[in-house]
Amino acid sequence: MKTRRKIAVLTSSRADYGLLYWLIRRARADPGVRLQVVATGSHLSAAFGRTERLIIEDGIPLAARVDMNVRGGTDLDTARSLGTGVTRMAEALSRLSPDFMVVLGDRFEILAAAAAATAMRIPIAHLHGGESSEGVIDEQIRHAVTKLAYLHFTAAEPYRRRVLQMGEDPRRVFNVGAPGLEYIARLRPLGREALELRVGMRLDGPLVLATFHPEGGGRTRASLAALLAALSDLDLRTVFTYANADAEADAEGRAVNSALRRFCASRPGLCRAVPSLGQDGYLSLLARADAVVGNSSSGILEAPTLRVPTVNVGDRQAGRLRAPSVVDVPASKPAIVRGLRRALSKDFRRLRCQGKNPYGGGEVSGKILRILKTFPLPAEGVRKPFHDWHGGRP
């Protein structure tokens, strides 16, 4: 009898859960897979909506909950949480003993999990490697996880080539596209009334969806102030989603969310801040929006597929591939106002929002799962000789 392959999938926030959703669903339904979902990071934080409930409400049992003790807002607090995370993740992995551990992106919780898995000789499958997010510490974390990972699933061909430049074997690097776009392809959008109930506000008139995450380096407060001042001047109906507990600091995320609540309280009926809409609610609202604004990767990855203009503020997403529908502006009030006016114009949507998303689209989870089920497991530990690449066609 063929043994089911044990695949652990780590999710640390509402954001990466949405991207991993269809991979998790497919793996759970596959008789050849024993799925182990591990929740950590902001999923377990009351301040960020305790979004582990979204996983449970989807009928997906949790194999482990790993609290990395993400508290405080200093670099020392983050470093301590990393250490806690490695220890607690190692204990969970020792119990689960997966054949592969799947991680996505560049959050510091992912680095802690990857370090623990590496020490325990558990092969890591990394999604969204090879990308660049130059404006935050995520850049270093993403590339560090790439070097710890055994299998790589990139979102675009340039990113696959970048992973190869880092010495990874081409036989273990697969360009499959961005997994979050599969959710859009399968989405049955919520109707306006259902969305209004979930948001708690009418959604008529020009509608902007805003998400702003901490930037670190002392820039967060000024950048957020510029964004809020611009939205105040334009008097637009705006729905804010809360910031994630990003790698920079839990305290910065709390400060962002507090500022959003104060801003919305001063503009009742016109602005609303929500901790979490769920993936279906968020994407349904994104599809209905006239524009998105902020510094979230969703404006770069998902919005172009829905043909919604993006005003990307600051350099948090610097280095990523962009569709023509993305307008980059510095974090200043005049620049954000100009960017939003441009994005909201009919000509912009007609001329710039019809192009192809560079991150692909369609069915991604099936490709990933087939490889996870069939790729030979390392015979002795996880050996990764450096693979030199001298250009040409990898």
What does this structure look like?
By secondary structure, the protein is of the alpha/beta class. The chain folds into two domains: 5-179 and 364-374, Glycogen Phosphorylase B (Rossmann fold), CATH 3.40.50; 189-352, Glycogen Phosphorylase B (Rossmann fold), CATH 3.40.50.2000. Helix content is 42%, strand content 16%. It contains 15 helices and 13 strands. The chain has a seven-stranded parallel sheet with strand order 3-2-1-4-5-6-7, with helices on both faces. Strand 6, helix 6 and strand 7 form a beta-alpha-beta unit. Helix 1 packs across helix 7 and helix 3 (75-96) packs across helix 4 (108-119). It is globular and about 60 Å long. The two termini are 38 Å apart. The mean pLDDT is 89.
Proportion of β residues?
15-25%
**CATH architectural category of the largest domain:** 3-Layer(aba) Sandwich
What do we call the CATH topology of the largest domain?
Rossmann fold
Major pleated sheet: 7 strands, parallel
Q: Order of strands side by side in the largest beta sheet?
A: 3-2-1-4-5-6-7
CATH class of the largest domain: Alpha Beta
Q: Using the alpha-carbon principal axes, give the shape.
A: globular
Determine the mean pLDDT: 89
Number of domains: 2
* Tally of alpha and pi helices: 15
From the alpha carbons, calculate the radius of gyration and give it in angstroms. Answer: 20 Å
What is the rounded distance between the termini? 38 Å
Assign a percent range to the helix content. 40-55%
Q: Could you state the CATH homologous superfamily of the largest domain?
A: Glycogen Phosphorylase B
Number of E strands: 13
